């Protein structure tokens, strides 16, 4: 049972930390080796880390791919190319397996089911590079934008920032996941998706260090003026992101990847 | 008595807020019109704001120039050009006045005495664009790098980040202000400058909103997990930056601009 996530964004936005946090957060802690922490890839290659986590009794092979050094050059034109290539390479692998005569009963699925795009917490609006990249990414995969290091925003700044980002996405016709127009969704699902769409981009905070708060041990960031708790919904929306991709929408993310994005790729490839 | 500061860095790094904070902080509050808040320039022009502040009984015309939209394009090659042009234009203005036959007794000084460069709090190291810009800026003006929005770093992350930045500056031979080798500095000044050099880049936080902390009204940022106090040395180094540019090193910043940077410009211009 594989689930593949890709994290995309500039260096220093907390991607590697969030990867570790996803593995360390409450449910996953039981199965993972907590000492095995993933460091930011130092090279320009795309690197993956894979762990088995247990979610409500279901074992899941969670693979997260990191994209180091994205958008950090003086000239970032085409910085999306290695990412697009990685996503399409997985479709190509799957297609070759699918059309081969001696194909395996169960095709190993390395397709990217969900692409988390990290927006820097500037407080203003999307940058040109964010728009350029997301515009292209949504055409080949499910994209969920998040506000990186959201602890650098006050609640008011966060709300205003989200409004502006949502306007930017709409103005540029960037359709992020979930797209609320799945004809086969029932009333409840559509209602849920509408609520999620209002909250996107999720304001996330990541951390693998534990601190004592009110007698409990929590994941968080300790500063001179307080402790930011990763799993406290009053502090950030990590829990919302995690529940959506690992629990409530995991199946849908895989289905949309297989039935929409992959099919589109397969269609184009078999036509040419 | 003019003192001209320029703030340089990407959008959303808190430059406008820091400009307002410099005007609002304890000493300045007496003279400024607190309602007159400066907004981020929406256009691509370079904009200045000027206020008279009172520092230890001395009235000072503090002018701060903001550089909007710096480095936010997909391709940022040559993003330093408008900034370099602005700095050199002020030298040109001064030179024309200086060499004119009917020149005024006191030449109005619009030369940039101090350039505050904002480094995003990535926690990693300097980005290529930071190195490219600072390399050029230090050749024409006094540059003081700061870590923007430093409340997004823990104390440990901040220390490690500063170490790496200092190494990057050294590796790229970027000599920021103060340069500790002024032959005419006395023992005390050299010692002081050495201490400052260890602290640079200053980890700053800016804010113009006031909150109650332990019965006092302080400038700060209010979050769910605590209040970041701008003028609390345990929280950030805003006070260090402010004291350095407005108090202890104001005279030196003006002198180095006039006797080193401007003289170099004048030399080149009169030779050609
Ligand atoms: N303020 C804040 N800092 C974070 C957060 N997550 C990670 N960091 C810090 O940001 C720095 C860079 O994080 P890293 O995960 O290596 O970023 P990456 O380059 O995107 O992989 C490190 O010092 C982290 O401790 C967060 O949610 N908030
Ligand atoms: N976390 C944090 N946010 C800040 C700080 N200073 C300003 N901000 C916020 O960052 C956003 C952008 O600030 P602004 O001053 O307009 O940035 P500019 O584009 O560089 O001029 C606003 O929401 C500010 O309230 C700071 O020191 N720390």
| Helix-strand makeup class of chain A | alpha/beta
Report the β-strand fraction of chain A as a percent range. Answer: 15-25%
How confident overall, as mean pLDDT of chain A? 88
Q: Largest chain interface and its two residue counts?
A: A-B, 37 and 37 residues
Family (chains A, B): Belongs to the TRAFAC class TrmE-Era-EngA-EngB-Septin-like GTPase superfamily. Septin GTPase family.
GO molecular function, one term (chains A, B): GTP binding
Domain Septin-type G (chains A, B): 1-272
Protein name (chains A, B): Septin
Describe this structure in words.
Two copies of one chain form a homodimer. The first copy, chain A, is an alpha/beta fold and 272 residues long. Helix content of chain A is 38%, strand content 20%. Chain A has helices spanning 15-24, 81-99, 128-137, 155-171, 187-199, 238-248, 250-271, and strands spanning 2-8, 47-55, 58-66, 114-119, 143-147, 202-203, 210-213, 216-223, 226-229. In chain A, the strands form two sheets. Chain A has a six-stranded mixed β-sheet with strand order 2-3-1-4-5-6, with helices on both faces. In chain A, strands 7-8-9 form a three-stranded antiparallel β-sheet, with no helix packed on it. In chain A, a hairpin with a 2-residue loop joins β8 and β9 (226-229). Chain A is globular. The A-B interface holds A 10-13, 40, 72-77, 79, 120-124, 127-129, 132, 149, 151-152, 154-155, 221-229, 234-235 and B 10-13, 40, 72-77, 79, 120-124, 127-129, 132, 149, 151-152, 154-155, 221-229, 234-235. One guanosine-5'-diphosphate sits between chains B (11-17, 40, 149, 151-152, 205-206, 221) and A (123, 152, 157). Chains A, B: This is Septin.
């Amino acid at each position: 049972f594989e689930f593949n996530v890709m994290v995309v964004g500039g260096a220093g936005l907390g991607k590697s930390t969030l990867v570790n946090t996803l593995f360390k957060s409450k449910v996953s802690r039981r199965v993972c080796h907590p000492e095995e922490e993933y460091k930011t890839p130092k090279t320009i290659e795309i690197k993956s880390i894979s762990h088995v986590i247990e979610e409500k009794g279901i074992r899941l092979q969670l693979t997260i791919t990191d994209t180091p050094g994205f958008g950090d050059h003086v000239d970032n034109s085409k910085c999306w190319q290695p990412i697009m290539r990685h996503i399409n390479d997985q479709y190509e692998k799957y297609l070759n397996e699918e059309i081969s005569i001696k194909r395996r009963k169960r095709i190993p699925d390395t397709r990217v089911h969900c692409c988390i795009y990290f927006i820097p917490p500037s407080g203003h609006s999307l940058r040109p590079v964010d728009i350029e990249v997301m515009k292209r990414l949504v055409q080949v995969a499910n994209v969920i934008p998040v506000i990186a290091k959201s602890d650098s925003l006050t609640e008011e700044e966060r709300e205003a920032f989200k409004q502006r980002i949502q306007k930017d996405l709409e103005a540029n016709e960037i359709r992020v996941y979930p797209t609320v127009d799945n004809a086969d969704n029932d009333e409840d699902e559509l209602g849920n998706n509408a609520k999620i769409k209002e909250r996107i981009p999720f304001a996330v905070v990541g951390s693998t260090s534990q601190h004592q708060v009110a007698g409990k041990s929590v994941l968080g960031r300790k500063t001179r003026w307080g402790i930011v708790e990763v799993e406290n919904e009053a502090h950030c929306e990590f829990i919302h992101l995690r529940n959506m991709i690992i629990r409530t929408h995991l199946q849908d993310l895989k289905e949309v990847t297989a039935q929409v994005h992959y099919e589109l790729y397969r269609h184009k490839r078999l036509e040419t």
